[in-house]
Amino acid sequence: MLQFRFIISLLTGILFFSCNEKKIVHTYESDFEKELNAFFKDVTTSPLKPDDFKSFQSLPFFPLDSNFMFLATLKKTPKNEFFDMKTNTNRFSKERIFGILTFQIRGYEYRLKIYQSKTSLSNKEKSLFLPFLDKTNGFESYIGGRYLDLKIPNSDTIMIDFNEAYNPYCAYNENFSCPIVPRENFLPIKIRAGVMYDEKY
Asked: What is the pLDDT of residues 78-123, one digit of tens each?
């Protein structure tokens, strides 16, 4: 799974919190968008099918929105065992619940389970996997939900930036095996941030 971070996130976050949750929408292309587009254009890394390269220019993105970037509280669950997370194929992904994230969007509190893969642990990677569903799925974003890659924090808080949410590779190519987003990670609101979905890719 990709791990994309862009420096502007922190600067925008500071601005966001200082504006008392006033919405700030950006129209420029972020580093995350540039890097993700470059990844998709590279034939050696892209999940796109060969025919899709002929017309591919850029993935569709929601406008950058600071309302979807914030600090969340992380309650770790260290005693959880690894389990077989279902994928869109016969393969299973070895995951464990690393903890519970608690955060607020527009004054409402939400919780999501965040996962750690056995592969990342074996490779001594400090990465976490946050799959989620929301009310844009099947309309503006991929019907199967989206992913976020996060780093294990040194404290009990973690920065979530839904502007970096991306689609699973199986959204573009059915030959990829992708973890199915657990239903309990459904957010009953529209997360209009991150990568959108276009059937032509």
From this structure: 989 999 999 999 999 999 999 999 999 999 999 999 999 999 888 8
End-to-end CA distance of the chain: 19
The whole-angstrom separation of Cα 9 and Cα 129 is 19
| Amino acid letter, residue 151 | K
Which tokens in the block code for residue 140? 């503006």
40 three-state secondary structure = helix
3-state secondary structure of 162: helix
Q: Give the span between the Cα atoms of 112 and 157, in whole angstroms.
A: 14
Is the distance from CB of 171 to CB of 198 less than 8 angstroms? no
Q: Distance (Å, rounded) from C-alpha 165 to C-alpha 156?
A: 22
Q: Is 36 left (phi over 0), alpha (psi -120 to 50) or beta?
A: alpha
Q: How much is the mean pLDDT over the chain?
A: 87
**Positive or negative: CA dihedral 118, 68, 47, 183:** positive
3-state secondary structure of 82: coil
Q: Count other Cβ atoms within 10 Å, centred on residue 134.
A: 20
Q: Say if strands 83-86 and 92-105 run parallel, antiparallel, or are unpaired.
A: antiparallel
Closest to 112 (Cα-Cα) out of 138, 140, 133: 133
Residues in Cβ contact with 129 at an 8 Å cutoff, skipping those fewer than 6 apart:
1, 95, 114, 115, 116, 117, 120, 147, 148, 149, 150, 179
